[in-house]
Amino acid sequence: MSLLSDLINLNLSESSEKIIAEYIWVGGSGMDLRSKARTLPGPVSDPSKLPKWNYDGSSTNQAPGQDSEVILYPQAIFKDPFRQGNNILVICDVYTPAGEPLPTNKRYNAAKIFSHPDVAAEVPWYGIEQEYTLLQKDTNWPLGWPIGGYPGPQGPYYCGIGADKAYGRDIVDAHYKACLYAGINISGINGEVMPGQWEFQVGPSVGISAGDEIWAARYILERITEIAGVVVSFDPKPIPGDWNGAGAHTNYSTKSMRENGGYEIIKKAIEKLGLRHKEHIAAYGEGNERRLTGKHETADINTFSWGVANRGASVRVGRDTEKDGKGYFEDRRPSSNMDPYVVTSMIAETTLLWKP
């Protein structure tokens, strides 16, 4: 008799050309990922060849009950690390039956910005450092922490090794490999300053693909923690007090910044970001005011600043960039629960299209 695990791991390609496509989208809160699966007659590698689909938007706070149909438009395909074989994950955005993007569809406006000739010509690169916290399912308290209590103070946990310092490494490594399998450009992982907190990095990714890859990586992380019986939190300050918050530092460069003389372009771009500081902060994630306090490697939310190698600044420029006279910079303001479509496209719009 087959075990459940045997059935889960069945290789469909041995008996059928059909594949399973998991359609994934962002729900009404802007952070709740939703998904459902459908059978397709054969392998697909081009999202434009995938059928549109619909779902009940009234159950995701995206449509009223009397007119609840929302349409999924497939936009990006990744290999499915859970079902494997030719099965796929499909990142979708959402529209009304009339073809109008829903207010929660942040990809639509981002795609317009990235397709602008002045933006496309600059080939914007992004590297996003996604921090997150692993929580014990029944208590919503960080993994490895004593129930209702606290571990020793911060210090030994950042990139730490050992059973008393690193909590959840099996989940982190499973996620790392699953993302590589899926075709996500994940570039690394590390333990963070607060115990139970980790980070993965995606990039360099060009334009809209940075948002697609972060959402796909978040989906895979949610699925792995579901299997492990652990909760993943993207709250920017999950534990009040003398503990680091969680951000999504966004590294950015353009073609002009990466070429000789690029440092001057970088300084002009940072100046523009400073002029629109309040607009960016408003779009950089919910609850970010609890994180951006001027402590724990953050700048105060109300004050824009930048500096070389300064992790207490809003924007950090690396020593290598200063030395080489070209390169990239890091916007340290986005919170861990930011929408990557919003953040990446807004940085491009401010630095490449906006006229002060």
Provide a descriptive summary of the structure in words:
- The chain is of the alpha+beta class.
- It has 2 domains: 11-102, Ubiquitin-like (UB roll) (Roll); 117-353, Creatine Kinase, Chain A, domain 2.
- The chain is built from 10 helices and 13 strands.
- Strands 6, 7, 8, 9, 10, 11, 12 and 13 form an 8-stranded mixed β-sheet that branches. Strands 2-1-5-4-3 form a 5-stranded mixed β-sheet, with helices on one face.
- The chain is globular, with a radius of gyration of 21 Å.
- The chain starts with a helix and ends with a helix.
- Homooctamer.
In CATH terms, what is the fold-level topology of the largest domain?
Creatine Kinase, Chain A, domain 2
Q: Judging from the principal axes of the Cα atoms, what is the shape?
A: globular
What is the structural class?
Answer: alpha+beta
Strand content: 15-25%
Poorly predicted parts: none
- How much is the average pLDDT? 95
What is the CATH C-level name of the largest domain? Alpha Beta
Radius of gyration: 21 Å
The number of distinct structural domains comes to 2
Subunit structure: Homooctamer.
Family: Belongs to the glutamine synthetase family.
Organism: Medicago truncatula (Barrel medic)
Subcellular location: Cytoplasm
Concise summary:
This protein is of the alpha+beta class. It has ten helices and 13 strands. The chain folds into two domains: 11-102, Glutamine synthetase, N-terminal domain (Ubiquitin-like (UB roll), Roll); 117-353, 2-Layer Sandwich (Creatine Kinase, Chain A, domain 2).
